Every structure is written in structure tokens, then in C-alpha cells.
Amino acid sequence: MKSITLTSLALLAIFGARAQALDLETCLKMADTANLSIRNARLDRSANDEQSRAYKAARLPKIEAVADYRYNAIIPGQLVPAAFFGGQPGTYAKVQFGVPFNLSNTVQLNQVIYNPQVNYGLKVLEINAKVLEVQEIVQQQEIREQVANTYFSLQAVTKQLGFIQGNIIAMDKLIANMQAMKKNDLVIQTEVDKLMINRLNLVNGQQTLEATKMQLEDVMKILIGYPMEKNLELAPDNVVEQTVLVDETVNRPELELIDAQIEMNKEERKGTNMAYLPSLAFYAAYNYTYNMKPDEDVRVGIESSFIGLRLDWTLFDGMEKWNKQKVNAINYEKMQNQRELAEQQLDMVTLNAKRQIDIKKTSLDLAKEKLMLAQRVYDQTVLQFNEGTIASNDLILADNSLQEAQTNMVAAYVQLRQAEIAYLKSIGNIK
């Protein structure tokens, strides 16, 4: 609860009472702070730290207190040689020991002097801390990739909506001119209807894009921990020029994770070897037993105390540890192969992502050129249509071509940004 409150205060401090336009860098920082998956990864690290403290506590002395109150309904007995009491040799007598009421209190101190398994457990937790740290980085990169792709998809939808809104305005002007011509009987109603149908298609596309934008905004809010009830506004993005390739330093957390697992495997081998060693502990105890037999007015307290050393040593375990070492060696070889394969795959992904960036850059340049040409053709077609030299079918065809060029340009933009993000993800450097 305290963590959630601090996160909320931090968000309020950043954005204030009113909505503020968010750029990509701000969205990534918010995800690092508020995304629930990343926060859970940090909690895993905190849990490991607490577990390490618990293991260290095993080295400290332990004090235990035991109180036992007992009523002997039947006092236990034992057979002893009758000769012990002056009886006939070779015969036995039943003797009862104890009293009906017995109150026993014991305080015992235990202190581990040497236990190789405790040291092994601490080392394993230390390595596991590295594993969890790398896992957090991997999780962070995955969330950042999702945030960046969602961000650029939102930018693309917003740009596409801008195109459609402009197209609707232009179409409304053409329809108004066509209706004026219809009043003067210069064109038939069918020509007006054709443009109206095209306008309805534009409105339908606008509504579809607005619904897509709302869905993407909801996804982004979840990813960055933004309040669902607030409006999300993104800063305007330079559709063509703003690249995200600002730092191409290679960091491979996936390989670091495998390296940490290999280190864990080596430590497990050491831990198995340590299991051959004995453990030594010191203990001391004080006991006070109060015995009562009320019918004979017997009330006697008896003290006892002792100290000792306890040595535990497994001399033969049925080859259990030897077989564990064989399994450990097989796992070590598998992880070495896994690391080599992962390195090859990551290199391949990086190389392919680099190629995709070049391909998408070319596609974007072509899409820009096609859009320019489509806009030029459309403008010329509108002039010819207003002059009455071409029919509405030619105008609608030019308008559709312009819409297609706009869509292709926006799609090429998104694909280029996604290729850049995929490349940065492959080198572990989305930031």
C-alpha cells in the first residue's frame, strides 16, 4: 500500500492536476516506475534479500524454552533383579518410579559452529540475486518494447485521423460545389450521390480509427500505470524524421542470465561436495523438574544442566550425491550449449533487424514520394473536375488513391519504428 501511494504521488508530481502531453521518453520512465510486471520483478529481488537475511540468521544462536506439565494416571514401572532389594537371586520385582504430578521446564541454547550447507545456501542466494536482477532487466526491455510499439501505433493512428479529417473537409467543399451545380442543372443527382458515398466511407474509416485509438490508449495506460479515468495525450511526433536509434550500445541480458545460471550450476556442484563434510553444533540446556505426590505431601524440585557438542556426519548415502554430481555435469553441458545457441540466435536477430531497418527506410521514402505524387494528381483532378472537364468517377478514383497513399505512408512509418525497436530489443538497449 505504501509503494502504491508513493507511485501515485510521483505521478501527480510529474503531471500535475491537468493532463500533459507525453513523449516516448516520459512513457518509458513511467513504465519503469509503475508497470506492475516490472514492480513484481523488483519485489522478487526484495524477497530474495529477505530470504538471504533469514539464512544468515541460521548462524545466530537459538534459544528454546519448553514447559511440560504431566499427570501420570498410572505411574510407569520397570522390572529389576529382586536380589537388588535382598530378594531371591534369579527373580525380578516390579518397581514403579516417579510421582503422579510432574512439571518440567527446559531452556536450551543451540549454536551452529560449522555447517557447510548454510554457507552454500548463502552463496546460492547471492547468485540468485544476480539472476533476478538480470530477469528484471529482461522484463523491463520487454515492457519498453510494448510501450514503444503502442506509442508509435498511437502516433500513426493520430496522423491517419488527421489525414481523414482533412479529406472529409475537402470532400465537403466538393459536395457543396456539386450541389450548387445541381441546382443550376449542370450535373445530375447521381454525381452528387457518388461523392456522398465516398464521404460516408471516410466517416466510417474515421470512426474505426477512433475506436482503435481508444483501445491503444487503454493498453498504454495499463503499460505505464496511467489512471484509466484520465485522458491520455501524446506529444506530437515528427512522423518521418524522429528516429529512436540514439544509442546502439550492445547489452545482452539474455546471455547474462544464462551466465548467472551457469554460475549457479557450479555452486550447486560445490554444495553437493560440501554435503560430504560434517556439521558441528554447540548446545547447552538447563532443566528444572518439580515432582508432586500430594497424598504423601511430597514436593521435590530437581535441577539438571548440561552442555555438549553435536557432530553429524553422513558416512555413506547410497551414492546419492555421486549421482547428483552426474546430473549436475549434464546440466552444465546443456547450459553451455544453450549459451552458444542463444548468442548465435541473438546475433542473427540483430543482423536481420538491421536489414529490416534499411528495407523500411526505403519503403518509407517510396511511400513519401507516392504520397506527394498522389496529392499532386488529386489537386489537379479537383481543378479539372471544377472546370467540368472530367467526371466524378475520376475524382473519386484520385481521392481513393490519395487515401491509399496516406495509409501506406503511415504504415511505412510504423513499420520503420517497429524495426528500430526490434533492433534495440535485440541488443538490450531500449531506453
Structural description of this entry:
The protein is of the alpha+beta class and 431 residues long. It is 64% helix and 15% strand. It has a four-stranded antiparallel β-sheet with strand order 1-4-5-6, with no helix packed on it. A two-stranded antiparallel sheet has the order 2-3. Helix 6 packs antiparallel against helix 7. It starts with a helix and ends in a 5-residue tail after the last helix.
Short note summarizing the structure:
The protein has 431 residues and is an alpha+beta fold.
Features:
single chain; 431 residues; alpha+beta; Outer membrane efflux proteins (OEP); four-stranded antiparallel beta sheet; two-stranded antiparallel ribbon; 64% helix; 15% strand; elongated; disordered N terminus
Write the layout of secondary structure elements.
Layout (H helix, E strand, L loop, with lengths): L1 H14 L8 H11 L1 H22 L4 E10 L5 E5 L10 E5 L4 E14 L1 H68 L5 H36 L28 H22 L4 E15 L4 E15 L7 H68 L4 H35 L5
Antiparallel strand pairs: 1-4, 2-3, 4-5, 5-6
